TrEMBL record:
Gene Ontology terms, MF aspect: mannitol 2-dehydrogenase (NADP+) activity; oxidoreductase activity, acting on NAD(P)H, oxygen as acceptor
Any coiled-coil regions, as ranges: none
Family recorded in the similarity comment: Belongs to the short-chain dehydrogenases/reductases (SDR) family.
Keywords: NADP, Oxidoreductase
Keyword NADP appears in the UniProt entry: yes
Signal peptide: none
Top-rank taxon: Eukaryota
GO biological process: carbohydrate metabolic process; small molecule metabolic process
Any single Pfam family the record assigns to this protein: adh_short_C2
Protein name: Uncharacterized protein
InterPro entries in alphabetical order: NAD(P)-bd_dom_sf, P-loop_NTPase, Sc_DH/Rdtase_CS, SDR_fam
Organism (species): Rhodotorula mucilaginosa (Yeast)
Length: 506
């Protein structure tokens, strides 16, 4: 479908429907001569996707990426947002308040850095690009991995057709320039809703004032000073979604490195772990830290946590902080997660590991408070954490939530009688499996169910231990070190296709 509109100057411009599937087919055909060229210098085809704020260019770019990767090619998406100047950089400007108000204007970006990356795409087989973290409100280095398989690169951003240097040079480096065109009022209303949803404005009135003072000015500049695009895209009418997971399909495949070691890397990521004072929790912390990740240890009463945090940080050269937290109290969990986000700037993984229970048969002598305590420390604490992590993960567009459950979620233990504990852990498994569906568009959720492990929570009665040894396939208790790999797998990009799973380790 082709439509004709006129620019502000009265010139005609022909639009084609922004159909990701059809445009992916056309793009593959036009880029074939580059993508099938012999090896040596990287053979990549670069497409610049521009549009005014609120146009929908980012959503379209992601849909086009999915369509391309569903075919026999590999494409990558590099958003211009990764080249925002940092808050520290803006704070050093002569008028920091003005710079922060106009964040999103051309001068608040690093176009020289973007130009350098674009040129590296022509000369280097493997490289990385930054991405913007909405939680930290700053770019994150090396967030996007690009290797020799990625032959089509989509570069998306408002100013990729701006006729001002160095943006003009960036624009001309593209093999094709596309402009996603929508009505300015439609774009404005989208920006207003986006500002409110992101918490950047208290209500739509404040959001409109913010948009008129910045986003609309940027849109006017883009439309009045434009390097002519090769293709004008007109938004397609779409049916309302019946659920967040409805199309377009297939979803984009994550951009992953070739090296399995790189897939397990936690560099640049932050993990919070409850029950981090010892046992399984501290073992998981060691695994994350050894893989290069920063760690927040949440504990209730473990001694010397500041010293242990400092020792772990020194041993692996990462940032580690400890936070006292009562996981059975929602407000305490909320405050701890907010403190982690403030101190580290982001939160990529949360391991709900704290747990416990009061054994005993269910009869009139079993204390009601014991039942409630067991459900609270195991199930309610997991819910409290998930409730607070949802906001962060959704804003970031990514996250991994891991809950430590137990083999007791699957079997009836002997010789123990512990219905309260068993049922609470089974509830956590199904809660997390349901949460995986609920969070399907922005985070992964999994559980780990350890068997009989040698921890402070393990049985202290030798007779009980003997029975457990006999019933264990390997005839012994597990060492918490034998759980490290499982936690690292689920926390890292090695498990990007794993969600709703329960790993039984026994």
């Amino acid at each position: 479908m082709t439509a004709v509109r006129r620019t502000r100057s009265g010139q005609e411009r022909k639009h084609v429907a922004a159909d990701p599937q059809a445009l992916a087919d056309e793009l593959l055909e036009r880029s074939a001569h580059v993508c099938k060229a012999p090896n040596g210098r990287p053979q990549r085809y670069l497409v610049g996707l521009a549009g005014i704020p609120g146009s929908g260019k980012s959503t379209f770019s992601e849909a086009l990426l999915r369509a391309l990767n569903a075919r026999e090619t590999r494409a990558a998406l590099v958003p211009m947002d990764g080249f925002h100047r940092t808050q520290a950089s803006l704070a050093a400007d002569p008028d920091p308040a003005f710079s922060f108000r106009r964040r999103g204007a051309p001068f608040t970006f690093d176009p020289d850095g973007l130009l350098a990356l674009v040129r590296r795409l022509r000369s280097e087989h493997s490289l990385s690009a930054p991405a913007f973290s909405h939680a930290a409100k700053d770019p994150v280095d090396d967030a996007i991995q690009i290797d020799s398989r990625h032959r089509i690169i989509l570069v998306e951003g408002s100013f990729l057709c701006l006729d001002e240097e160095p943006w003009r040079t960036i624009s001309l480096e593209m093999d094709e320039r596309w402009f996603y065109d929508v009505d300015e009022e439609t774009a404005l209303q989208r920006v207003i809703k986006r500002h409110v949803a992101a918490g950047l404005a208290a209500d739509e009135t404040a959001a409109e004032a913010k948009a008129l003072a910045n986003d609309v000015l940027n849109a006017k500049l883009i439309l009045e000073k434009m390097v002519p695009p090769d293709k004008w895209l007109a938004e397609m009418e779409t049916a309302p979604e019946s659920s967040p997971s409805d199309g377009p399909f297939p979803k984009a495949t994550p951009q992953l490195p070739n090296s399995v070691f790189d897939m397990f890397s936690m560099k640049g990521k932050v993990t919070a772990i409850t029950g981090g004072g010892g046992g399984i929790g501290f073992a998981a912390a060691e695994a994350i830290a050894e893989a290069g990740g920063d760690v927040a240890l949440l504990y209730r009463s473990a001694p010397n946590m500041e010293e242990r945090s400092a020792e772990l940080a020194k041993r692996f050269g990462v940032k580690v902080k400890s936070y006292q937290c009562e996981v059975t109290e929602h407000e305490s969990v909320k405050q701890a997660i907010e403190a982690v986000e403030k101190d580290f700037g982001r939160l990529d993984c949360y391991i709900a590991n704290a747990g416990g229970g009061v054994p005993g048969s269910i009869n009139p002598d079993y204390p009601l408070e014991a039942w409630h305590k067991t459900q609270s420390v195991n199930l309610h604490s997991t819910f409290y954490a998930a409730r607070e992590c949802a906001r962060i993960f959704k804003a970031q567009g990514s996250g991994s939530f891991i809950a430590t459950t137990s083999i007791s979620a699957r079997i009836v233990n002997v010789p123990y009688d512990q219905p309260a504990y068993n049922s609470s852990k089974a509830a956590v498994v199904h809660f997390c499996r349901s949460l995986a569906r609920d969070w399907r568009n922005f985070a992964r959720v999994n559980t780990i169910s350890p068997g009989f492990f040698d921890t402070p929570m393990g049985p202290s009665d030798k007779a009980v231990e003997d029975v457990l040894y006999q019933k264990s396939v390997l005839g012994r208790a597990g060492d918490v070190k034998e759980l490290k790999a499982a936690y690292l797998y689920l926390a890292s990009n090695a498990s990007t296709y794993t969600t709703g799973a329960d790993l039984l380790i026994e």
